[in-house]
Amino acid sequence: MESVEYISSDDENELDYYSSDRDDSNDDALINDDDDDRSNWLPNKGSSSKVITKESLLAAQREDLRRVMELLSLREHHARTLLIHYRWDVETIFAVLVEKGKDRLFTEAGIPNPESHDPVSLVSTSTMMCDICMEDMPSCDMTKMDCGHCFCNTCWTEHFIVKINEGQSRRIRCMAHKCFAICDESVIRNLVSKRHPDLAEKFDRFLLESYIEDNKMVKWCPSTPHCGNAIRVEEDAFCEVECSCGNQFCFSCLCEAHSPCSCAMWQLWTKKCRDESETVNWITVHTKPCPKCHKPVEKNGGCNLVSCICGQAFCWLCGGATGRDHTWSSIAGHSCGRYKEDREKQSERAKRDLYRYMHYHNRYKAHTDSFKQESKLKETIQGKVAILEGKESQLRDFSWVTNGLYRLFRSRRALSYSYPFAFYMFGDELFNDEMTKEDLEIKQHLFEDQQQQLETNVEKLSKFIEEPFDSFTEDKIMEIRMQVINLSVITDNLCKKMYECIETDLLGSLQFGIHNIAPYHSKGIEKATELPVSWTAKQCAGDKRKRLEEPTTGGSSESDRPSGSGSSEETDFPAQKMARTDGFGGGMFDLNLPAEVIDRN
Amino acid sequence: MVDFSRVQKELQECNKDINVSGISVNPKSDNLSNLIGTITGPVGTPYEGGTFKIDIDLPGGYPFEPPKMKFATKVWHPNISSQSGAICLDILKDQWSPALTIKTALLSIQALLSAPAPDDPQDAVVAQQYLKDYQTFANTARYWTESFAKTSSAGVEEKVGKLAEMGFPEALVRTTLEAVGGDENLALEKLLSG
Ligand SMILES: [Zn+2]
Ligand SMILES: [Zn+2]
Ligand SMILES: [Zn+2]
Ligand SMILES: [Zn+2]
Ligand SMILES: [Zn+2]
Ligand SMILES: [Zn+2]
Ligand SMILES: [Zn+2]
């Protein structure tokens, strides 16, 4: 048994142990009765994505640094230069090493001489000319970089300051023309801190943040106001994650989690919803400009002669000014030409597009609205459960209620985002050349059938959850319990099937377009777990979730510590410092709510 | 703050071999951060015989930031804006190194006149012409050199005046002169032939 200090990780351990012990085909999230509200709603086991806080940023990159240092017997600053150049992708570094050899690996990254020792100020009494300021300088005021280029310290310092201010801290090149060597970070730190300690700190932060900025597997959490965290994912960048601040997002595009819509579709959809163009569209469908005063005029009734408030009469079909003398089928002295047909077709098309959009948007919106309504159920449901628990009754386990509600959120969410997906999948905007109309129609029917089933069952589930079961008899409650559990399993399965259908039959069959969606997880969007602040090799090999109490020791000599001042102390913070997870989300219902709902709550 | 002691040294150094390099740099006023550079058009190019003035502004961070340079003389070249004189050259941007000097920058510009890089154009119109119709490009470039980069020899206005006096319409004289790169005799031949 672990000691008390590990409370928060213990929780997770217990849950992991617990749920992995079960048959987790459908419903492990449904049936774990638990003494702790929070863990009841923890959907993921040992999540692979990690929250990187300001404090753990250094520890997060340690493993990569160490691997590279060990494999290539490099000193830390060279390892970092290499990792920055290859965007923190250790696999790429190994691949380049095998393909091109050590020399190329280093020179391409701007490391001319990895075996070189710490650059030292030249100890000599003679003077040398600095090619930058063109002054004679005592050699002791000059610094020779790994590449062999030697300039005076004043010039180096000036160069570093300009580059740091330009935001180029991560790749400050040597001053010599056409020399691609990256300057040694310790030289930079030393020289700059003598003149501008603030700037030296900024430099260190930039270096540290390279792990986030230059790394495709790590991204800043897009929360506003920014929580200060970054998220690291393993292997697949197409996923949805939840930061410890409660913000859920699509890791790939940083928008709200939107699967089973692809990122590209979601971008189009949000733009479409925002765009005035739809109102413009409505106006073109329903009104025509008066040929005299140019105000939009609405058609009233079936007659094609319309008149503007300014008194001008005109033909609805072609928009041309006419007299008022007309019959149903013709206007005196007026005949429309081909022009009319084009106009008519255009407006027919606009009308069709608009109606199609409205169809999908209405459903999307209806489900989003239900979602918002249902997320308010939280307290009511808790109240009902409390009442039931207070009763003398044989019924003890009410986890089915909260689990059912959770399943409802999860499915409702998938359902609402399936509408924008369908809008683009079966529209003619994206995949016109991909398949024949007939093919597409067959697939559309298949998909809509699944969507329909999901919709029906989600509504049923919603209905049962909202029943006032706290006032029911035990038998009735047992019946509702059965229904809720059944429907939970069914909707979960239907969601899974719908995602499968989208991934393989629909998006998977595309030849030209590349659309990826985040995979479906029964347990909902993965909560990233916080990385421990300190890190050692032993810990990594052992239980990853265990947090080390004692500060990092060993191996932290001056050159081993990458980023001087500020950060070294932070490395040593005990684990308790980070127990911020617990304060978040006000309990269980932060799961699976879109950002807007969280905002409103 | 510009390193004026270095600039001073650079100016002395540069103006020592003016006759060999064809490159000179002089302060615009007392202020050493505004300079005028002069380069001669490279032999064997449409710029031959021209003298091109280049406006040089030294930013506060010079030499740690690149000098700002643009042509004060109008020039027809794919990498130089025919409108503003802006120059598209890597060492004036991200490839600048403090070890370079105003003179080396001017030498690079001179080299650019001999070897345009139309794939990385500053002036898309000129670059298109350079790629699709080199002859017209060369003629235009030569005409611009004649018109704007030559002060000593007979100016274009003089030639226009002479040909117009022979009875050709002035507008036609100008276009013809431009088409043959400013050569007075060729222009006359062309005007006479039709
Ligand atoms: Zn110097
Ligand atoms: Zn160098
Ligand atoms: Zn966050
Ligand atoms: Zn996305
Ligand atoms: Zn009107
Ligand atoms: Zn009527
Ligand atoms: Zn008409």
Automatic annotation (TrEMBL), chain A:
It is an enzyme of class 2 (transferase). It catalyses: [E2 ubiquitin-conjugating enzyme]-S-ubiquitinyl-L-cysteine + [acceptor protein]-L-lysine = [E2 ubiquitin-conjugating enzyme]-L-cysteine + [acceptor protein]-N(6)-ubiquitinyl-L-lysine. Residues 1-47, 542-593 are annotated as: Disordered. Its cofactor is Zn(2+). Residues 24-37 have a biased composition (Acidic residues). Keywords: Metal-binding, Repeat, Transferase, Ubl conjugation pathway, Zinc, Zinc-finger. Pfam families: Ariadne (PF19422), IBR (PF01485), IBR_2 (PF22605), UBA_ARI1 (PF21235). CDD domains: BRcat_RBR_ANKIB1, Rcat_RBR_ARI1-like, RING-HC_RBR_TRIAD1. GO terms for molecular function: ubiquitin protein ligase activity; zinc ion binding. It comes from the Eukaryota. PROSITE patterns: TRIAD, ZF_RING_2. One of its GO terms (biological process) is protein ubiquitination. InterPro entries: Ariadne, ARIH1-like_UBL, E3_UB_ligase_RBR, IBR_dom, Parkin-like_IBR, TRIAD_supradom, Znf_RING, Znf_RING/FYVE/PHD. Belongs to the RBR family. Ariadne subfamily. This is RBR-type E3 ubiquitin transferase.
Automatic annotation (TrEMBL), chain B:
Its EC number is 2.3.2.23. One of its GO terms (molecular function) is ATP binding. InterPro entries: UBA, UBA-like_sf, UBC, UBQ-conjugating_AS, UBQ-conjugating_enzyme/RWD. Coiled coil: none annotated. The active site is at C88 (glycyl thioester intermediate). Belongs to the ubiquitin-conjugating enzyme family. This is E2 ubiquitin-conjugating enzyme. It comes from Artemisia annua.
